[in-house]
Design goal:
By secondary structure, the chain is mainly beta. The chain has 1 helix and 4 strands. The chain has a 4-stranded mixed beta sheet with strand order 3-1-2-4. A hairpin with a 4-residue loop joins strand 1 and strand 2 (29-34). The relative contact order is 0.25.
């Protein structure tokens, strides 16, 4: 089975996807995560450029979780 890179979901963009966008209308919340391993029918795959330029609708919160360090990497002082 060959691995085919997924493309950005934005119309007209053929760049490779690097992030997954999911959202919750009821809570006016959106999340950007590292690209999910499997295609998710409830998420949008975005390239780096479109993920970086994403702005949520007015009144919504966007949580960018692409660069969050795992708790094991944190050092207590």
């Amino acid at each position: 089975m060959s691995h085919v890179a997924r493309q950005c979901s934005r119309t007209g963009c053929s760049e490779a996807a690097t992030a997954s966008l999911t959202y919750d209308y009821a809570h006016a919340m959106a999340w950007l995560d590292p690209l999910h391993a499997e295609r998710d029918p409830h998420a949008y795959d975005l390239c780096e450029r479109h993920a970086a330029r994403l702005s949520p609708p007015q009144g919504w919160q966007l949580r960018d979780r692409r660069f969050v360090e795992p708790a094991s990497a944190l050092i207590a002082v």
